[in-house]
User: What shape does this take?
Amino acid sequence: MSAENMALSGIDRVAARFDAEGRLLHKKPFGNGHINDTFLLTYEMPGGTEKKYILQRMNHTVFPNPTELMENIVNVTEYLRGKIVSLGGNPERETLNVVKTKSGASCYEDDGHDFWRMFLYIENTLCLEKVDSPEEFRDSGKAFGNFQRLLADYPAENLYETIPGFHNTPARFAAFEKAAGQDKLGRASTCAEEIAFALSRKEKTAVLTNLLEEGRLPLRVTHNDTKLNNILFDKDTQKALCVIDLDTVMPGLSLYDFGDAIRFGANTGAEDEKDLTKISLDLTLFEAFCAGYLEGCGGSLTPKEVEMLPMGAWMMTFECGIRFLADYLEGDIYYKIHRPKHNLDRARTQFKLAADMEARWKEMEGIIGKYKK
Assistant: This one.
């Protein structure tokens, strides 16, 4: 029996712990996420109407401090709710809404020490798994930029680090160097070119962290997983509506969110493409996201942040590459693989994309210059 089906059998007992309205009618697994087990619950309301909720069993292997994670989410979403109301928006649809337990807690720990949480389900929405047009990518950029703008005054230092050092690129590079130096499985000889590529760029890895330490870049509330499928689009208007999946919301740099979105969405090939001739930076998509992101930010970024946006794109791409390469050298212990050398293929695509960014740096800077305020 799958983990989801095993959990499904005990859903009624878990759901009863939460302050949901109505009587539970239906329950089913929901979505295609790889981290948490997710279920859609339908409740019957007085008068025969229905109300839906999302119930999730949280993966406390990936997130070892679920109560801290949920404190981040509750504080950020309640802050967003207030901002959305003040701007005349709909807080039931434009941000996640945590449903607390009947005792007022943000999550519930069951007898097996699994942690559960509940959100209101946002009706009439859809998720997009890949970028199909510059317009979609621009709209996603606007959504993530708006997320940044609404949280610009939030004291980021008050948030917990759900994954400590998540985007500390120098620390990630040190872990890669250690893996390459130890070469426990004798794989270094199969990726000497990739190791050399990474080592030759060591000095660049501290550019952003140095600027943060010097006070030249501000600490921000960051999402840290700015993929297209972490935005809900309204089915009727086809416009971006709500940023979701806030598990990695924590203190960081706005450049991390911008950069990871470009790394994922403006690549002309798949993340694990074997044919590297298919990998390059799509400047049309880069420009579309830039335009949307800076519009959404509404002038809330500092001039230095705007200037460093190309470096954010490069840094997140390079960082991802060294993480894939380190995992390959250590025996594929973190990222799931579906074929031999899968993580090496992933590292190669990231390095090819990073190299293409280097070759087109002036073009990226020119695009940023068109949209900065």
In short: Residues 84 and 303 are 26 Å apart (CA to CA). The longest strand covers residues 50-58.
